[in-house]
UniProtKB/TrEMBL annotation:
This is DUF3526 domain-containing protein. Keywords: Membrane, Transmembrane, Transmembrane helix. The keyword Membrane applies. It comes from Hymenobacter wooponensis. It comes from the Bacteria. InterPro entries: DUF3526.
Amino acid sequence: MRTFWILFAAEWRHFKAAKGLVLLTSLVLLVGLYGIYYGTSEINRQRQHLAELPALARHNVDELKVKFPGEADAGEIGYYHTTFAVHHPTPWASLSLGQRDVNPYYVKLRLLGLQGQLYASENVNPTKALSGNFDLAFVLVYLFPLLIIALCFNLLSSEKEQGILTLLLAQPVSAATLVGAKLAFRLALVLGLVLVLSVVAMLWAQVPPDGRVGLWLALALVYCLFWFGVAFLITSWQRNSAFNAVALVGVWLVLVVLVPGLLNVFVSAARPVPQDLELTIKQREEIHGGWDKPKTETMNRFFALYPQFRDTATIKERFVWRWYYAFQHLGDQSVQPLTVAYTNGLRQRYDLVNRLSWLSPAVAAQTSLNALAGSDLPAHLAFLGSASRYHYALRAFYYPYLFHKVAFTHADFAKEPTHTFTSTSEPATAASGLGKLLISAGVVFGAGLLLFRARPVNPR
């Protein structure tokens, strides 16, 4: 054991003398801190935006009170009044933005057809959308493996190429002790860096100190252990440093870039889903066609869904708001099968990716971190479902005014339902991902150990 710690200390001195490695490690630390800053700033920006929405809704109400100083037709209020379905992030979202940088975190709603509003999104800079956002999870999943490769590609080959491995093994030092000390130092360095960045991110984001802290750290540490296992496996082949570097970078490209890309193509082909644009277009076609259909036909179809309003007066006017909102709702109903297929298809894609994530530890780690942060696809689908239920509540609020011809007063604005939705973490998904990472790390370390024992170290 004393020999092990002597070698461990020697590795520390060697690391300090290697200016390039010190610079690289410092750079990764700075990039990690920037990822923390960016993720926290992005979530704070979203929170600030969400906090401003109630003021916008109140301003809209004030304008309507001026526009309609007395009693008003609820149909006109429903047409001009804007409210919001909002998706609040968890504190953990600062560490792993997940879907929150590609999907809307609020939806502007009126009493009109839902689907055209639900899938409407603001224009974004396409260059920014292509490059994606930056957070701590990105640094851990994509950049830390490169740091581990830089630290470990010449784990044993450098001594052999410098001609000092024979001298080292001539001492009372076994090859296993030498490799173990080298790996242990690099492991301590990287895991210490992971711990520092994670703690800084958690304090900065003010995450609650619960069991998710341990789960996040376990995911990050085991993921790094997997890459150390890959480095140990490549080292056990006892090839030169150039071969080791190329092999490790090749493994990184396959597991972090190629497999996730192929997985995305496969999942898209295996689980096709209707496009949200298709939903919107079909709904609009149905709504626009409603103008030309007989009012009796439209209202009978609507009364089949809302029989409580069947006893309302027959429509004789050329235009009346209850007829207008009736065919708006029927437009939503016409695309209901597509809506269900779209939502179920996305969920099935997500489940299929989860089942196949053992093919790429990077996918398993990213999916798990997003689930822990409540920023994954299921969280977004849950928000869309919540927004749909809110729109249903709005219709349930306005329909009695419309069909019973009740005047809408200023006091009625305060009775209108409001919406809020906050993501929840999915520790079960994260724990499942942790299990996959543990198995992957165990497999590569086991394979490396078997190869290391099968091929005695040749000092030349």
